[in-house]
Structures are given as structure tokens and as C-alpha cells.
Design brief:
Arc Repressor Mutant, subunit A, 8 helices, sigma factor activity, sigma factor, DNA binding, RNA polymerase sigma-70 factor, ECF subfamily
Length: about 180
């Protein structure tokens, strides 16, 4: 069977089973999650199409078996996400994020997205330069240079805000992230 025939067979299967698979998922998940689950069901089915039963009824049952596993995975993922949210909610805010002032927020907003991300990784997420280098796929020296430039621009923006009568607090001063190299 060539790929065009496989695609046509799969399209026929999709058309004949979509409502049933969607109804199965909707009975178990929210509407949005059900749509995601159905998409995943047919993606898995396409990857495993060589295992697809020839009988249409058996094929529909095979798809419902895949749907059962996809729904279970999504449900587990939702439980993990809820546990993570509870743990995060129980954590005290970090000293750096609680020190954020309107002046700092405004100065950060004036930076490029890349510089904002770099500063947040260093100060909010408390990553070392080595960790940031691994994340970006660049050298530690390149991270240090970029971080230095981002801090310089942030300092300049904070100084400009201060010169225009906006009082900045000591907490907004930017230095080396927690002594990490």
C-alpha cells in the first residue's frame, strides 16, 4: 500500500470515527482539553498506522484505546500541574521579586526582550552564568558580556528615571547575581 492509499484510508477512518472519539474525550475532559486529546489520538494513530486493524469496528475500538491512554496522560498532567501550582502558591515571594518597584518595572519594559529575559534569568530565577550559558547554548563569557550590557542599559534607564524626579530605591540597584560566576 503506497502512502497515498494510506492517507486516504486514514482520512476515511478519521471521518467515520471523529464524532465517537470526540464524544469519548468530552465526557472525560473539558472542551479545550478534549480537542487537544483528540488531536493527540489521531497523531498517535497516524504514527502507529501500521498496527491499524483492517476491520472498521476494530479500528474504532483501537482508536478509543488510544483515546483512553491519551485522556489518562492528560489527567495525570493536570493533576501534576495543580500540585505544582499549590506548591508555588505556598512558596514565599523571593527577595528580588518583592523588591521590584514601578521604576524597575518601567525600566525593564524599555529593554529588549532578550535583555529582559537575561536579567530575569540571572536575578529572578537565580541562575548562574554557567546555567544561562547552557540554556542559551553559548559560552559563559558571552553570557557575562550580554549580562553586563543589559545591566548597563538598565542602570542607565533607572538613572534617567531618577533624574526625572522618580525616586529609585536601593533594592533596584543591579549588581552581580548572588555572587554567581
Amino acid at each position: 500500500m503506497d502512502s497515498d492509499e494510506q492517507a486516504e484510508d486514514f482520512d476515511r477512518l478519521f471521518r467515520s470515527t471523529f464524532r465517537r472519539v470526540m464524544a469519548y474525550c468530552l465526557r472525560r475532559l473539558s472542551e479545550t482539553a478534549a480537542h487537544d486529546a483528540v488531536s493527540e489520538v489521531y497523531a498517535v494513530a497516524w504514527r502507529k498506522r501500521r498496527q491499524l486493524p483492517d476491520d472498521e469496528h476494530e479500528a474504532a475500538l483501537w482508536l478509543l484505546g488510544i483515546a483512553r491512554k491519551v485522556v489518562a496522560n492528560q489527567t495525570r498532567g493536570q493533576r501534576r500541574w495543580a500540585r505544582l501550582l499549590r506548591r508555588v502558591a505556598e512558596q514565599p515571594r523571593s527577595a528580588v521579586s518583592s523588591a521590584e518597584t514601578p521604576e524597575l518595572s518601567e525600566a525593564m519594559a524599555g529593554l529588549s526582550a532578550d535583555k529582559q529575559e537575561l536579567l530575569r534569568l540571572a536575578y529572578w530565577d537565580d541562575l548562574s552564568r554557567a546555567d544561562m550559558a547552557a540554556l542559551y547554548g553559548i559560552s559563559v563569557a558571552a553570557v557575562s558580556t550580554r549580562l553586563h550590557r543589559a545591566r548597563q542599559e538598565l542602570r542607565s534607564r533607572l538613572a534617567t528615571a531618577d533624574a526625572h524626579g522618580t525616586k529609585t530605591r536601593n533594592e533596584t540597584k543591579v549588581g552581580t547575581p548572588h555572587g554567581k560566576q
